[in-house]
Amino acid sequence: xxxxxxxxxxxxxxxxxxxxxxxxxxxxxxxxxxxxxxxxxxxxxxxxxxxxxxxxxxxxxxxxxxxxxxxxxxxxxxxxxxxxxxxxxxxxxxxxxxxxxxxxxxxxxxxxxxxxxxxxxxxxxxxxxxxxxxxxxxxxxxxxxxxxxxxxxxxxxxxxxxxxxxxxxxxxxxxxxxxxxxxxxxxxxxxxxxxxxxxxxxxxxxxxxxxxxxxxxxxxxxxxxxxxxxxxxxxxxxxxxxxxxxx
Amino acid sequence: xxxxxxxxxxxxxxxxxxxxxxxxxxxxxxxxxxxxxxxxxxxxxxxxxxxxxxxxxxxxxxxxxxxxxxxxxxxxxxxxxxxxxxxxxxxxxxxxxxxxxxxxxxxxxxxxxxxxxxxxxxxxxxxxxxxxxxxxxxxxxxxxxxxxxxxxxxxxxxxxxxxxxxxxxxxxxxxxxxxxxxxxxxxxxxxxxxxxxxxxxxxxxxxxxxxxxxxxxxxxxxxxxxxxxxxxxxxxxxxxxxxxxxxxxxxxxxxxxxxxxxxxx
Lengths: 247, 265
Hints:
The structure holds two protein chains of two kinds. By secondary structure, chain A is of the alpha/beta class. Helices cover 40% and strands 26% of the residues of chain A. Chain A folds into two domains: 4-91 and 204-246, P-loop containing nucleotide triphosphate hydrolases (Rossmann fold), CATH 3.40.50; 98-167. In chain B, helix 3 (70-97) runs antiparallel to helix 10 (213-227) and helix 7 (150-173) packs parallel to helix 11 (233-264). Mean pLDDT of chain B is 86; it is low at 1-7. The A-B interface holds A 15-16, 20, 23-26, 28, 73, 75-80, 86-89, 94, 96-97, 100-101, 103, 105-106, 110, 113-114, 117-123 and B 1-4, 16-17, 19-20, 22-24, 27, 30-31, 34, 100-107, 173-176, 259, 262-264.
């Protein structure tokens, strides 16, 4: 398919619960002697397949522990699946845990370049976009102040401005973006909407079916690592809501 | 994880994240000296002051072991060893230290280990200025062979990268290494003729010098800086081979286990 930008093929993800907790030699030896090193496999994803087409606003819904975050991390390339294949075409920007990658001793200006580099942007591109990022974040006065003196709202504004200043082909959004004060929230919502209007592909993860219905056109529902349904957003959300109410 | 790049994924990634590497190296250097009045001058001042202290101690206590131009002798050894120790220690902590980033964004992981070593390398190159100043002050010979030291220094850089990748990988799975490695480095420092001449070591322990790649580099550099002579090509060859072996083992280990890092940090 020419239109497919993300293809997830029978992806399984296994974590080994007992082994992951031993990170020092003493524990390892003790567990080895006590023969406790055996496998405690936990399958976070048990064979999930779907395709996302170009321009899709794709929702992923499910309860806590359904494997949503694991799936996003696999698509973002942070982890590799135990089994199966993931195929992604195009540039991708994750909007997850937006504070990551900042240096507290660095000024706002320096952090724009550091974080930008982390997202894989070139220096020229960042220099071009620098004024725009600062203007959007409304941090002109504080741009040469070390980040540790910023309020959490200011940090979030800076992070949001950097991440959305490019027009990525694929945007990954985990939960809602409620950053800054009411005024900035309005602005960030507008920015999100303009990103959504363009032909960018969006992967959106949420507990709230309300938000998913607003933003997405297609969705999947994950439960305990299995894909329950996929299809048009309203169908999937209806089924999910019904399931929640039954519980 | 970009699926469309198959053939030259490594090169593609390196080009893409070159700017990140540059940013990380300059961040390390900038934040190290920020807030200090003298700033970057500390990378000159620190080795100079340490050298003066050690020279006073060893030339009064041990009469400098009869080594000619003890300040240059000491400084050459110490600068090289400090780079190796600092570079590998920083690389060891690099993967764990950037856990929050590695868990959210895809970044080639070696970039973090490499940047930790490269920032130490930049500090090392800056501190060579001090060495040249001390050489000038002590009338040491300046010869063409000084330029030739770039080869053993390059070998040292790659040896450090190789060892750095190994300790970075092991430290992800066994954090004990962080404590153990410091002890090992102290041992290595005293086993390497940095403060003392190699001749005072009993013959039965000479193998520690003979099979010590760092000491091979130190000896190459001392030949040039101290005596104005060309170094023994065998020493260079040994340093180069050690660097190649360390790189191969380091890369193999790192690439074999890097996909599992994320589950352990």
